[in-house]
């Protein structure tokens, strides 16, 4: 059984690596609107988390970057019209981060490209095999979360 577990683990790892490579290729050919890949990731992170009252400190915590570096990065993104800092109504000292409509459009288009490229190709499977694979992978996924 250990050999089978190793083989399946290796297969899943290989599939995941190939999927990451395909998704990464989308980013390589995508127009980031003048942003560097790092800036684009930060804009995407802000867009995904802005409902959680994201602040600059949160970006420092996640990236491990110094607060001054994050502040400079955000100042540039703000000056170029990608993000806004808004005063928190409950604490005037706190500035929450939000993306502009221009940034939201960029993220939406990028995500659509990633989704289109990132779909697992199951054309070699019959519909029944696809359902069976889904059931088995779901079972493995649930076992890993327990």
Can you tell me the CATH superfamily? Winged helix-like DNA-binding domain superfamily/Winged helix DNA-binding domain
Computed Rg = 20 Å
The average pLDDT value, as a whole number, equals 88
Contiguous helical run count = 6
Largest sheet: 2 strands, antiparallel
Would you identify the CATH architecture?
Orthogonal Bundle
| SSE-based structural type | mainly alpha
Could you give the count of β-strands? 2
Catalogue the unreliable spans: none
Text of the CATH class: Mainly Alpha
CATH-defined fold name: Arc Repressor Mutant, subunit A
Organism: Propionicimonas paludicola
Protein name: DNA-binding MarR family transcriptional regulator
GO biological process, one term: response to stress
Keywords: DNA-binding
What is the gist of this entry?
This protein is mainly alpha-helical and 146 residues long.
